Amino acid sequence: MRAPPVLTLSFMVALILTAGCSNNTGPIAGALTVSLSSPHGDDGAVLLTVVGGPVDSVESTGYPLYSARSGGDTLKLIVTGNLGSGAIARVHIPDSRQASLYSARLAQAAARGTYAPHDPAAYTLTLLP
Fold it and tell me: Would you say residue 47 has pLDDT above 80?
């Protein structure tokens, strides 16, 4: 005995729609926390670059923050204030599944008050969800 053609067609349409709904492949927005590890106790400003993909926005974690896009996937940040080791900014990205493609590099650092430069190689930056 065969199923009526209308029933078979309805079943096939339901199967296709169910399969399409169960495989969500769209982007999932997220944020990466930029954390600074410093050997100095007198940091007053850092200039860093975030690369790896598009950035939707940048959020301060309590410090004055200035940002500029430099090319499609490059973001430059200046963070100032009484800086110490820990979170200094949050970078919002359009797809958190691409977070491993992003990286941050410290370009310059300066002492508070005197603006004396510190060696950027002495610092560590991390970008974590």
Answer: yes
Alpha carbon 6 to its chain centroid, in Å, reads 50
pLDDT at 11: 57
Handedness of CA 87, 90, 91, 94 (dihedral sign): positive
pLDDT digits (tens, 9 = 90+) for 104-125: 999 999 999 999 999 999 999 9
Burial of 28: CB neighbours in 10 Å, binned 0-12, 13-18, 19+:
exposed
Tokens representing residue 57 in the block: 């926005």
Cβ proximity of 108 and 89 under 8 Å: no
Exposure string (b/e) for 37-71, b if CB count within 10 Å is 16 or more? ebebeebbbbbbebbbbebeebebeebebebeeee
**CB-hemisphere CA count at 13 Å for 7?**
3
Round to whole Å and give the CA distance between 6 and 12.
Answer: 10
The rounded distance, in Å, linking the Cα atoms of 34 and 88 is: 6
pTM: 0.79
Residue labelled with tokens 């002492």: 111
